[in-house]
Write a structure and sequence with these properties.
248 residues, alpha/beta, 2 domains, 7-stranded mixed β-sheet, 4-stranded antiparallel β-sheet, globular
Length: 248
């Protein structure tokens, strides 16, 4: 039995763009600038954005002068991102579970919980292998993920919202291993029509440390929000992990 991959159809749906149209470009830009100020990558650095979406983070990195490549599974996302391509900004449709430019980049970034979507740990390990093997030498990897414990404590179970006259009904829940968000719209007859159920793995800092160590990467720093404040297992909304390749 082949398990359905919820993200394939949902990320290509016009309703996805509608529901998340407010995703904050300014917040993304501010985070990229704070992160690069902290990491201090040399201007000639080659940077990979894994799970880049429409390229909102990649575009900021390129504007700062770095040579940036973005990859994403979604063809509509990449088609949109390609409209912004320049000499130092490139986009490719690619499945992060498959290798991509091994030992080529100086930095690999995975922003805004663009991980944890797959059905098996083996697939997640394959995605982590792609991310980590893309960097050369003592290259740096940054994983920006939700903080499982914070989300458990702050989960809004039911929510109604109207976006450009389209009424959405959102239902959230979780089990031992995943968070779920079911997205429905109300048709004119008031019935609910199911669009998608997002599913994201409950990975802890320990899980990421283990996955990274398996790829010969060592966690260097962990931050708890987009201002790079210290990580608190209960209070931090994000879990931003900086790891480097081990030197043998």
């Amino acid at each position: 039995m082949v398990l359905k991959e919820w993200f394939r159809e949902w990320f290509s749906s016009p309703y996805y763009d509608l529901l998340y149209y407010k995703r904050n470009e300014q917040e993304a830009a501010a985070f990229v600038k704070i992160l690069t100020q902290h990491l201090q990558p040399p201007l000639e650095s080659k940077i990979l954005d894994v799970g880049c979406g429409k390229g909102r983070h990649a575009k900021v990195l390129a504007a700062l002068g770095f040579d940036v490549t973005g990859i994403d599974l979604s063809e509509p996302f990449i088609n949109e991102a390609k409209k912004s391509e320049t000499e130092n900004l490139h986009f490719f449709q690619h499945d992060m579970r498959l290798p991509f430019y091994i030992n080529y980049f100086d930095y690999a970034f995975n922003f805004f919980t663009s991980f944890g979507y797959f059905n098996t740990r083996r697939e997640h390990d394959a995605a982590m292998r792609t991310i980590t093997q893309s960097v050369r030498g003592t290259g740096t990897v940054v994983i920006d993920y939700l903080n499982t414990h914070y989300v458990e404590d702050h989960l809004v179970q039911s929510e109604e919202c109207v976006v450009f006259n389209v009424p959405f009904h959102l239902t959230r829940w979780h089990d031992e291993e995943h968070f779920y968000k079911q997205i429905q719209i109300r048709d004119p007859d008031a019935s609910l029509r199911h669009l998608a159920t997002e599913k994201v793995a409950k990975f802890s800092l320990g899980d990421f440390t283990e996955m990274l160590a398996y790829q010969q990467m060592q966690v260097q720093e962990v931050f708890g929000d987009y201002q790079l404040k210290s990580y608190d297992v209960r209070k931090s909304p994000r879990m931003i992990i900086v790891a480097k390749k081990l030197v043998h």
